[in-house]
Amino acid sequence: MNLAGLIAAHGYWALALGTFLEGETILVLAGVAAHRGYLDLRLVMLVAFAGSLTGDQFFFLMARRHAGWLTRRLEAWRGKVEAVHRHLERHQILIMLGFRFVYGIRVVTPVVIGLSRIPAARFAVCNALGAAVWAVAVAWGGYLLGNAVNVFLENARAAELAAFGLVAVLGLGLWLRRRRRR
User: Fold this and answer.
1) 52 near 100, Cβ under 8 Å?
2) I want to staple 110 with a disulfide (CB 3.0 to 4.6 A). Which of 19, 56, 68, 74 is the partner?
């Protein structure tokens, strides 16, 4: 199976899983793939929105349901938790709308919000709005980046798999590095 076939067969599922967890790198790649004609940009945006919304709601609800257990286990995230909590006290709506755009706090923020007294309905509305803006902006950015990739790969179709693989490996490496620091 060629690259186009692999992306068409598994791209949306990989995007859904990636955006459930964090997703910047995979969403940019999906935007580039949409530019190349392997995926549909509107569907990329929709899947990214659904994955991001679902993931962050999940982390919020887990924090609500398991607050005591989480509080004891979050020692490794103490600095990030305290920073998010301080900002959350001053800029509640802004934080809930924009946390996806701040590298390194994507997963911890819904957990901290879940541990706070912010009403679940308020978080759900802000989460949906933030996920929509994020999905459109990052997917569109990847789509525009696809133009640069086209220029770069103009006569190198065989290098496509290597380029996508390299970006995916770099993204995974950065994600693993960040996970080990926590």
Assistant:
1) yes
2) 56
Averaged pLDDT in 10-residue chunks for the chain of 182 residues: 80 93 88 93 98 96 83 68 76 88 82 89 96 96 85 63 77 83 71
In this structure, the chain runs to a length of 182
CB contact burial 99-111 (16+ within 10 A = b; e otherwise): bbeeeebbbbbbb
* Residue where the block lists tokens 């991001």: 52
